[in-house]
Amino acid sequence: MATSDSIVLYDFFASNCAWRVRNVLHWKGIPYETRSVNLLAGEQHKPAFLKINPYGAVPVLYIDNRFITQSVAICEYLDETRPEKRVFPEDPYEKAQVRRIVEIINSYLVPLQNPTTAKKHSNDPEEQLAWSMDFFTKGFTVVEKLLAETSGRYSVGDDVTFADMALVPQVWRAKRLKPDFSRFPNIMRVYKELLQLEAFGKAHAANHKDCPEDIRGDVC
Ligand SMILES: O=C(O)/C=C/C(=O)CC(=O)CC(=O)O
Questions:
Q1: Residues of the chain whose pLDDT is less than 70?
Q2: How far is CA 17 from CA 24, 52, 162, in A?
Q3: In which pathway does it act (predicted)?
Q4: CA distance 166 to 44
């Protein structure tokens, strides 16, 4: 039973959006509990969950005695209420650099890969992947160009930012498409750096309690 000072993440191991929030919670060292919402089994459409998020999507974070939906809103709230190890830079131009990388992933790529969207296109998983490939290629080509300008050790300079929180889950998901990752050297360099960080390892889908046995622990 959640208490008023509990932090509870409504989560699915493979959800890109929920994974961003896990990254930020672990990065900031904020303890939380998990409630699983199996997106592949359609649990996001059940009435009890729709009361929490009428859109029927994860993540939802219960925090400070309230529910917050939408990963970017949640992570901004976390940064503003718990500013240690900020993930959104205070400098407005640097923050814009972070947000434009995030928006390509959040607005152009992830919605087209959601289970509900993919099923509208086709019920054939192979066809769903083929359809995603065009959007993925355009999105990653643009993110690669942005990182060529902005990246240092991480996506924007040498500090970990929310752009990194969004990048890792999307690279992992893109592996299903088996793209030629050598076309994206900056993305892959930053991705490998990030996987060295303890917080990113803890938040990784492959280390999630709900991860299927066949891919469990495969952090790569
Ligand atoms: O497609 C759905 O029904 C639900 C989607 C989500 O809950 C989250 C989502 O956007 C997928 C993701 O984060 O990877």
A1: 1-4
A2: 11, 16, 12
A3: Amino-acid degradation; L-phenylalanine degradation; acetoacetate and fumarate from L-phenylalanine: step 5/6
A4: 21
**Is 173 in contact with 136 (CB distance < 8 Å)?**
no
The C-alpha atoms of residue 146 and residue 67 are separated, in whole angstroms, by 34
- CB of 114 within 6 A of ligand 1: the answer is yes
pLDDT for the residue numbered 158: 98
Does ligand 1 have an atom closer than 6 angstroms to the CB of 116?
yes
Q: How far is the CA of 114 from the centre of ligand 1 (A)?
A: 5
Judgement on whether residues 57 and 163 belong to the same structural domain of the protein: no
- Quote the pTM value: 0.94
DSSP state of 104: I
Query: Nearest C-alpha to atom 6 of ligand 1 is from which residue?
Result: 57
Q: What is the pLDDT of residues 16-33, one digit of tens each?
A: 999 999 999 999 999 999
Give the pLDDT score at 113.
84
Q: Which pLDDT value is given to residue 178?
A: 87
CA 196, 200, 202 angle in degrees (round to 5)?
A: 110
- Which domain does 156 fall in, by range? 92-206+211-215
Residue 30 lies in a domain: yes
ipTM: 0.90
Mutate to test the pocket of ligand 1, among 58, 60, 71 (most ligand atoms within 8 A of CB): 58
Return the CATH number at 22. 3.40.30.10
Phi-psi category of residue 70: left, alpha or beta, with phi > 0 → left and psi -120 to 50 → alpha: left
Could you tell me if 207 and 168 are in contact, meaning their C-beta atoms sit under 8 angstroms apart? no
Number of structural domains found in the chain: 2
